[in-house]
Amino acid sequence: MSDIAVTREARGVDGYVLRQAEPGDLPGARSVMLDTVYRDFGHGYLPQWHSDIIDIDSYYLAPEDNTLFVAAQDGVVAATAGVRGQTPVSPPHPPEVTNRFEEGRTATLYRVYVRPEHRRRGLAAALVDACLDFIAGRDRYTAVYLHTDARTPGAVEFWSKRGTILFDERIAINEMRPETPEAPFQTVHFELQIPR
């Protein structure tokens, strides 16, 4: 068991193992991710935004400064959280967001998803802490960015306690992203601090 798993279990996520994903975890992680985009986002899998879900290995495991953490219970993946060295770009993100981050030095959190039956147990917080610890251990990164879909239950409240809102597409118009009136984006952009 890794040091991360021991530390997180001591923080109140008993019954789960938190670790960096291994190849055997990828089908379970993919299932958590796909279920989330279909159930919570209401639009399902969109290749232009979700290709990392299909090719987890290339996006999270192969690059040295990227990673994916999972929380598993009895060997079944219940939650995910990933780190990618990817600076947000405009379009599709608004310039108010992209101008805050240094190209090539930004860690972006992705796919912080918890299956509904495992929510409210501290898994998301523990996984985010593991991601931030990973980021802090990399000289490359000077900032942390993420965006969340406001339709995900509790997401905006969770991230608001951990970071600063940079741009809220529910109340401000993102002119860099064309959207259809039937399905507007409800993206909220955040910056988090790297622990030192």
**Computed Rg:** 16 Å
Count of runs of 4 or more consecutive helical residues: 7
**Distance between the terminal alpha carbons, to the nearest Å?**
25 Å
* Annotation, overall tally of beta strands: 7
Structure write-up:
Keywords: Transferase. Pfam families: Acetyltransf_1. Residues 16-181 form the N-acetyltransferase domain. This is GNAT family N-acetyltransferase. The protein has a 7-stranded mixed beta sheet, with helices on both faces. It is globular, with a radius of gyration of 16 Å. 31% of the residues lie in helices and 25% in strands. With 196 residues, the protein is of the alpha+beta class. It has one domain (3-192): Aminopeptidase. Strand 2 (67-73) and strand 3 (76-85) form a beta hairpin.
Can you describe this structure in just a few lines?
The chain is an alpha+beta fold. It has helices at residues 3-10, 26-39, 47-54, 56-61, 95-98, 123-136, 155-160; strands at 17-20, 67-73, 76-85, 106-114, 143-149, 163-168, 187-192.
Task: Please write out the topology.
Layout: H1 3-10, E1 17-20, H2 26-39, H3 47-54, H4 56-61, E2 67-73, E3 76-85, H5 95-98, E4 106-114, H6 123-136, E5 143-149, H7 155-160, E6 163-168, E7 187-192
List keywords for this structure.
7 strands, Aminopeptidase, 196 residues, disordered N terminus, 31% helix, 25% strand, alpha+beta
